[in-house]
Amino acid sequence: MERACLVEWLQINVVVEQASCFVKSEIETR
Fold this sequence. Notes:
By secondary structure, the chain is mainly alpha-helical. It has one domain. The chain has one helix and no strands. The model has no long low-confidence stretch (mean pLDDT about 90).
């Protein structure tokens, strides 16, 4: 159960990282 929770957190972390990277590129193109 703990491992599943950790995997879920890692997936959320990756999504957040991708989102922040996307936002940075969006700001730079403007």
